[in-house]
Design goal:
By secondary structure, this protein is an alpha+beta fold. Helices cover 24% and strands 34% of the residues. The strands form 5 sheets. A 6-stranded mixed sheet has the order 6-7-8-3-9-10, sandwiched between helices. A 5-stranded antiparallel sheet has the order 13-12-11-14-21.
């Protein structure tokens, strides 16, 4: 039995349905990240797990116990908020200990717990300060300490890093991952940042308009997106999605991409059975930027590399890589090249396509074909 189970969960506010039959299960010690655009229902889902929001129908179980009607204080959870929610008149140590004090834990045991958590988060030197004397990153550590000190069954994080600057966000992300690896606690984490999701999660749940689009490991969601929305949402830069057509020439399939003056034909190696029925039909071809490269930068382990000349429209150096924009099928397409490739805008140069990493989607249903 999974440690956290969410079955057929619906949540309505009047006539507005915010969550539409969500099913998710994670094992004990898992790190589930809920991602999706603003308004997709991820924070509402987290609040229903916490008991801060009632549910309209369905079931939520924690450690084998149905908690639908259980008060938040009885669910043995701890929550870390985006706003930190620290008491400004209390010291750091008092903020961390507050929950323990409310539960009647002795002063000696509180002090021991505070020191343990402070040492883990490297905030021992801050225990006497007040929240107003701390940086954003320090306040977030205190908020995490207040949750950790309770040793709950389940941790809930609601966009805890969104108020931090970019560098501090990366540092704190590493800190949270290190803590999870050390403690082995079960975590549900909400973010709109798909890079955060990829780096932290053992499982990712992608939501759109209250509907669960896909649940899987970071690799599954990234490498085998269930539909065009997941393909476009996960990854930075996002997957290139190009209108194309499947052609059958002498028993072998190719994907034809219309261009202004010609049609670009790329072979489809070992096409799956699901793609055979699309012969002569339109599809949406998906290919990630790292699978469109310069010739020398192509993956040496790739079995099927196709070459095609494309016109360079934009060159974006980022240091380690250079993103190059071209046009395919009337859409801007981004490739990821080596940093010292010498490409210039307007040049017509060979691009390498890793055909072993391509994806196909049905343009009508937007579901994955292969």
């Amino acid at each position: 039995m999974a440690f956290l189970e969410i079955n057929r969960l619906h949540k309505q506010y009047g006539s507005v349905e915010v969550l539409k039959g969500v099913d998710i299960a994670i094992e004990e010690g898992g790190f589930l990240v809920l991602v999706g655009p603003s308004g997709c229902g991820k924070s509402t889902l987290l609040n229903t797990i916490a008991g801060l929001e009632s549910i309209s129908s369905g079931e939520i179980s924690i450690d084998g116990k149905v908690v639908n009607d259980l008060h938040p204080s009885k669910r043995d959870i701890a929550m870390v908020f985006q706003s930190y929610a620290l008491y400004p008149s209390m010291s750091v140590g008092e903020n961390i200990a507050f929950g323990l004090e409310m539960r009647g834990v002795s002063k000696a045991d509180r002090e021991k717990a505070i020191q343990g958590v402070a040492g883990m988060l490297q905030i021992e030197h801050l225990l006497k300060r007040r929240p107003g004397q701390l940086s954003g990153g320090q306040r977030q550590r205190v908020a995490m300490g207040r949750a950790l000190v309770r040793d709950p069954k389940l941790f809930l994080f609601d966009e805890p890093l969104s108020n931090l600057d970019a560098k501090l966000r990366v540092d704190m992300r590493t800190e949270i991952k290190r803590l999870h690896q050390k403690l082995g606690t079960t975590i549900v984490y909400v973010t709109h940042d798909q890079i955060e999701a990829m780096t932290l999660a053992t499982q990712i749940a992608v939501l759109k308009d209250g509907i669960l689009q896909q649940v899987g490991s970071p690799d599954e969601v990234y490498s085998k997106p269930a539909n065009m929305f997941v393909a476009d949402f996960m990854g930075s830069p996002t997957m290139n999605l190009i209108e194309a057509r499947i052609e059958n020439g002498g028993g072998s399939l190719s994907v034809e991409i219309p261009q202004r003056d010609r049609s670009l034909s790329l072979p489809v190696p070992q096409p799956p059975t699901s793609l055979q029925s699309y012969s002569g039909r339109s599809v949406v071809l998906g290919i990630r930027p790292e699978d469109i490269t310069d010739l020398d930068g192509a993956d040496p382990k790739a079995e099927h590399i196709a070459h095609a000349n494309c016109s360079v429209e934009v060159v974006e150096p980022t240091g380690a890589d250079t993103f190059v924009v071209t046009q395919l099928g009337g859409k801007e397409v981004t490739g990821r090249m080596r940093s010292a490739n010498g490409l210039s805008v307007g040049a017509d140069v060979p691009f390498a396509f890793n055909m072993g990493k391509i994806h196909f989607f049905d343009p009508a249903t937007e579901l994955r074909i292969a």
